[in-house]
Amino acid sequence: MRQMNKVAVLGAGVMGAAIAAHLANAGIEVLLLDLVPEQAKGSQDKAQRNLVADQALAALAKSKPAALYAPEYAAWIETGNFEDDSPRLRECDWVIEVVLENLEVKKRLFLEHVVPNLSENAILSSNTSGLSVNELAQVLPADVRRRFMVTHFFNPPRYMRLMEMVPCTETDPHLLRNMASFLDKRLGKGVVFAKDTPNFIANRIGTYAGAATWRHMVEMGLTVEEVDVITGQALARPKTATFALWDLVGIDTVVRVMDNSYQLLTGDDERELFRVPESTRRMVAEGLTGKKGKGGFFKRESVDGTSVKLCYDPQTGAYRECVSPKFASVGAARQVDDPGARVKTLLQGSDQAAEFAWRTLRDTLIYTAKRIPEIADDVVNVDNAMKWGYNWDLGPFELLDTLGVASFVARAERDGVTVPQYLREVDSFYRVEQGKRYFYSVPDKKYREVPLTRGQVSLTLLKSAGGVAEQNAAASLIDIGDGIFCLEFHSKMNTIGGDTLSMIQKGLRRSESDGLGMVIANEGSLFSAGANLMLIAMACAEGAWDDLNMTVKSFQRAMMAIKYSKIPVVAAPHSLVMGGGCETCLHADAINAHAETYMGLVEIGVGLIPAGGGTKEMAIRAIRLAEANDTDVSPFLLKNYRNIAMAKVSSSATELIAMGLMRPGDGITLALDRRIHDAKLKAISLAANYRPGRPETALKAPGRGIAASIKSQLWNLEQGGFISGYDHYLASGIADVITGGDVPAGTVITEEYLLDLERETFLKFCGQKKTQERIQHMLKKGKPLRN
């Protein structure tokens, strides 16, 4: 893999600054350059001449969502301007252009500032979202053209996984592959290889899908809110659906991409669909560009002190109050967890929503099928582009497989719609055989293996090849090679119930007898939503306190089994890691987290205390830190207490270190697909000289004095109206547990004693009416109740 120690980002607009931020996230030095402001021309004041880049850097600290993993990473970015600092491009291993999306502006920048200063081995790339890479390359010398390519980040670069790479005709294939490896491993990007066609892959298909949605909306007389209810999660797409997505990216940006498509796609058989509707063009002219403007297809206004959601009516050009559309087919689809089955359920409906969904999906899938091999060589690149760039749950060809290619073709032809010939010839686009996934190659009509990126571990493929060592309904133990087993959760939202706890114990025993170590990881959309709240709610409703006590005890025993196993256990969390999922990670020997990990002990939100050893673990960490530093335990304990009492959730894996949920030696992986591999390597390294721990028996309790201090602060917060009386009650209970109970400071206690305190307090909270109300509210509404 090519080493990139320093990168120049040319252009400090919103996108350029965000790319610079993500490079800094990866520990790469960045030189961020932009124009000298008009008022600073002729000035010798460097601060004035660097103003554009400096302001962009300052804005990163306030950006939402945050562009940087941690505010201090901004120090990795150095600012400058084109006129003074272009010679410094010689210091850089990669120069990426992110200026105005205008062919002539980009060419002029290359000629005047880049070509004269580019190091002889440096990569040059453009972040263009759709301009021709070969037209851009025309102004470059031959030796630079072989090092030139498009590297198209999607916005926001930190969060959007997609990276579209497009070579020019003279790009060195070896350099292209090397760069792809770097973008994958160091920046965590999902790389797809696109052709030099307008708007490449994702925006070509995504823009078409939006345009087809508009056409059928007008034809069927639907409203924008009805369309968004149908084209969101019911259709296995994000909640932003169609028009909320346009508001998010900017309606002016959508218009620019559509205009670009219409202008350049002169040979496209559906070119007219890309013609921008006059009502949309009028919105942009009036400043209605979405969230960044005066409004978009949706906006909120205060009416009599109440926030009201308004919807734009393209026919009248006016806003009206939104209604909540109700469609039987959408309601049925929402009950289905599996995205493919959800779409099938929606399409099987008999109402207007089902027909609308079918028409838009039919047109989009057929259009996509016709674009192979025009926009990409294979279906894998297209599917990945839509999943990683538009957050579709399934790519277009994966959807065709789910619907059944033959069934899809038959229904389309009943509508009188022509489909590409090859759709009549293929049974499915993907198949899995003996632990390998194959795709149907359209040009040569053969199945070829889907390549795994280096360091990628696919639990799905390992299971298909017979790698399952143990399994029940909620979890599996998978042999991932080299003596390491992986414990995988696969219940709904990966919640932790009896079957999960059973498999933790069984998986540990199997790993101890047959292996060197264990990794805890899964490939779900989130690591774990925590303990199964429904089971807790049912036990509370039935007054089954003995059963609940045994369940919590079983949870604690499973966590202690992880912590004191005879082999190293490494947790590899990603995405949401709530409550019991967090406790699972806390008891592992080490954590190797994906960079985008949002973890926290959030039980107070449902009126409970972390009782799977989470409160106990945070108490022990504070006590041991104080001892190691020969200082007072209070500051360490109060920080850990606040994390629990405020239900704090990390905004990145980096923040977990400051929160005390990750420790020195724990790792962070930017590439999602490498996370399990990296955790496996950590388990192997720990196994070499592994010494199992023993339960703590000589802990010095922080004591009731610290608890009293916390409670006095809670009283002040309640009196000031910052917390409710019930928040005060719950937070006081947590304070009693984390400080070791009603004992003097320094009293010797055990780990088991802290677990008993946790469990007793948990059961006490469960018996409270307001906790039961909080649990029910979370189950029904999906958000906390402040009662």
TrEMBL record:
<keyword id="KW-0560">Oxidoreductase</keyword>
<dbReference type="Pfam" id="PF00378">
    <property type="entry name" value="ECH_1"/>
</dbReference>
<keyword id="KW-0442">Lipid degradation</keyword>
<keyword id="KW-0276">Fatty acid metabolism</keyword>
<protein>
    <submittedName>
        <fullName>3-hydroxyacyl-CoA dehydrogenase/enoyl-CoA hydratase family protein</fullName>
    </submittedName>
</protein>
<feature type="domain" description="3-hydroxyacyl-CoA dehydrogenase C-terminal">
    <location>
        <begin position="200"/>
        <end position="299"/>
    </location>
</feature>
<dbReference type="Pfam" id="PF02737">
    <property type="entry name" value="3HCDH_N"/>
</dbReference>
<dbReference type="InterPro" id="IPR006108">
    <property type="entry name" value="3HC_DH_C"/>
</dbReference>
<dbReference type="InterPro" id="IPR006176">
    <property type="entry name" value="3-OHacyl-CoA_DH_NAD-bd"/>
</dbReference>
<feature type="signal peptide">
    <location>
        <begin position="1"/>
        <end position="26"/>
    </location>
</feature>
<keyword id="KW-0443">Lipid metabolism</keyword>
<keyword id="KW-0732">Signal</keyword>
<feature type="domain" description="3-hydroxyacyl-CoA dehydrogenase NAD binding">
    <location>
        <begin position="6"/>
        <end position="196"/>
    </location>
</feature>
<comment type="pathway">
    <text>Lipid metabolism; fatty acid beta-oxidation.</text>
</comment>
<dbReference type="Pfam" id="PF00725">
    <property type="entry name" value="3HCDH"/>
</dbReference>
<dbReference type="InterPro" id="IPR001753">
    <property type="entry name" value="Enoyl-CoA_hydra/iso"/>
</dbReference>
